[in-house]
Amino acid sequence: MNQDSVQDGIKFSPYFSGPSVSENNKRPFVLNINGIVTEGRLSLSINYSPKQYHRETMEQLASLYKDCLNRVVEHCVTKEQTELTPSDISCKSLTIEQLDQIVEQTGHIGRIENVYPLTPLQKEMLYESERNPISGAYFVQIMFDMRGDFDVDSFAQSLDQLMQRHAILRTNFYSDFVDIPLQIVYKEKKFEFNYEDVTGTSELQRETYVDEYMEQDKARGFDLQRDSLIRMSVLRTKPEEYRVIWSFHHILMDGWCMSLVSKEIFENYFAIRENRKPQVTLLTPYSQFIEWLEQQDHQGAITYWSHYLEGYEGQTKLPGEKIKPKHERQNSRTLNCYLDDVLVEQMKQIAEQQHVTLHTLVQTAWGVLLQQYNDSNDVVFGSVVSGRPPVIPGIESMIGLFINAIPVRIQAQGGESFTSLMKRNQSQAVESHAYDTYSLYDIQNLTKQKQSLINHVVVYQNFPVDHRMESLGQKGEIPLEIMNVGVQNIIVLILR
Predict the structure, then answer these.
(1) pTM higher than 0.85, yes or no?
(2) Which end of the chain has a smaller Cβ tally under 10 Å, C or N?
């Protein structure tokens, strides 16, 4: 019996059960071939009509098939390592020759686990990184301080466990292998971790060193084809105080993932220190999202976005906008504007009363402001959607890049009230949801403005990374105080 049958205590009856199909039944197929493994042996039965084939023909077919199987087995047993075929990977468009070439060209990096296409926004990030490798546009750097009894070796182990669990963290990105860009997952990839003790210097020297370290880390960036695209450094600044610098390329994951990843890092860390198994959620591979993405209605998206942007003749600009050189390092600045609690509460009340989201209210207000600046009642700008389809089980805890950028059109109709405009914007957002995975680059190509259609993106975020991270240090028996969390470049979109 095969393994499952032995474990279940099931055996085949030695008695004849009679024909499984009536002799008067019409044959749906010319040949019906069934196979089963019993007692470690593969048995095949070929069912055919003697009115169409001679027995000798079927015996010859069975003999040829057996010879082919033997040659396949002989070929496989001579191999020291398993070899990939297109049936083993998610990207089914690759030929065996193309895959063999990819395996050969990436052999110095590691053994391949999977290959699949990129999401639309990953493509944008890859192309921009190749056009302007020094821009640093998609370099994300998170800083925070830790205080307490910190074990370096346990922390390093927790990072390696994270790396092995999530395929996206073992991924590199390529555009020059075939006619579509590919992301390649490697079976093994080390989490780049660095620890330094700088307690033997003065306070001024420590502060200077930490600042310089962060700038050098940012200037180093990432090589998308070779590097581990996530790394972390811990600098010990005082006997029980540490500065943590966590950097990754945005092509790996979006902002929602940061709290998921940090939670898992510290859960692993405390589990190692407490000699127990970590409590983690069931893992849904990122490749499942990519496969879902490939099955979407692309022609329907083309039709929808063509109609959505039909008749838009202008080009929405920001006040004081300047043309920047194409190739320069991203030199971003941040201006924080805070709304008081009273105003925020009023905004929430208005959104609730009008049955719209707070996001829609903010987005519509921005559109009205742009209308004033551009002296037009029809404006277009970019927005970012979460991109996590609820139809995929476990999507809320999956690590990867799901967000996508889409155009938002705010078109006021003569004398229309803000409330009416806001409700219509909400309705359009609901309609757009079915097509918000389509590439922004391709959407812009549907218009006469092409890649000049959108020059800025409004991002509405609701993930309090700092508060969530600060609470993680208290989960273990030997707690750590996490404080002063800061994030740079949570999302920067360079629009082609």
Answers:
(1) no
(2) C
- The answer to whether 240 and 147 have CB atoms below 8 angstroms apart is yes
Sheet holding 230-238, edge to edge: 192-197, 230-238, 241-249, 139-148, 480-488
Tokens of 478: 């030997």
**By C-alpha distance, which of 125, 141, 142, 121 is closest to 133?**
125
Pairing type for strands 457-458 and 41-48 reads unpaired
Q: How are the residues of the chain apportioned to helix, strand and coil, as percentages rounded to the nearest 5? A: 40, 20, 40
Q: Report whether pLDDT(486) > 90.
A: no
Q: List the structure tokens of 112.
A: 């391949």
The 10s digit of each residue's pLDDT in 363-396 is 999 999 999 999 999 999 999 998 899 999 999 9
Distance, CA of 245 to CA of 145 (rounded, Å): 9
* Structure-block tokens of residue 391: 């139809």
Question: Which amino acid is present at 405?
Answer: A
| Residues with Cβ within 8 Å of residue 373, at least 6 apart in sequence | 317, 318, 319
- Dmax (CA) for the chain in angstroms is 95
Q: What is the pLDDT of residues 388-433, one digit of tens each?
A: 999 999 999 999 999 999 999 999 988 899 999 999 999 999 999 9
